[in-house]
Design a protein that fits this description.
Low-confidence stretches: none
Number of domains: 1
Radius of gyration: 15 Å
Number of strands: 8
Family: Belongs to the AHA1 family.
Strand order of the largest sheet: 1-2-8-7-6-5-4-3
Structural class: alpha+beta
Shape: globular
Protein name: SRPBCC family protein
Organism: Aporhodopirellula aestuarii
Number of helices: 3
InterPro entries: ASHA1/2-like_C (IPR013538), START-like_dom_sf (IPR023393)
Order of helices and strands: EEHHEEEEEEH
Mean pLDDT: 96
Helix content: 25-40%
Pfam families: AHSA1 (PF08327)
């Protein structure tokens, strides 16, 4: 079930692996970087900024910057960021951030991963629709990337 509103993107995928393995792939900054395609400079720490260069072809000029909101072991990982802030000539610092949340739930065969990103209604109108569209497609791809990463690295 993947659904979206104008303010919130929601994606989910079931991964044939234990919650603990999926949790590690999402919250360990090195593993996160492998499937997300970002070279993060340090670990995720609640209340702190983590940043790094995107390594996805065509976006290498982009620095990803997140502020970690929550690390609730085997359950919820959340961070704030500025969605689709990719133009190096634009200062996005006055814009509000959106909240990205990963929640994990054990299933009979593995782990259900839910990803949501909310707060798009606060993004400036002139770029809100494109940011939403790009991140909607981005999260659809990223849930598959994390699944493939976990399956390739049991």
């Amino acid at each position: 079930m993947n659904k979206s509103t104008t303010d919130r993107i929601e994606k989910q995928i079931e991964i044939d692996a234990p919650v603990s393995r999926v949790w590690q792939s999402i919250t360990d900054s090195q593993e996160f970087g492998q499937w997300f395609r970002v070279n993060l400079e340090g670990p995720f720490v609640v209340g702190e900024v983590t940043r790094g260069q995107i390594t996805y072809p065509g976006y290498e000029h982009v620095t990803m910057e997140v502020i970690v909101e929550a690390i609730e072991p085997d359950d919820r990982f959340a961070f704030w960021w500025r969605p689709y802030a990719i133009d190096p000539n634009v200062d996005y610092s006055a814009e509000p951030r959106t909240l990205v949340e990963f929640t994990l739930e054990p299933t009979a065969t593995g782990t259900l991963v839910r990803v949501s990103e909310s707060g798009f209604d606060g993004i400036p109108a002139h770029r809100r629709d494109e940011a939403f569209r790009m991140n909607d497609g981005g999260w659809a791809a990223q849930v598959v990337n994390v699944r493939d990463h976990v399956h390739a690295n049991p």
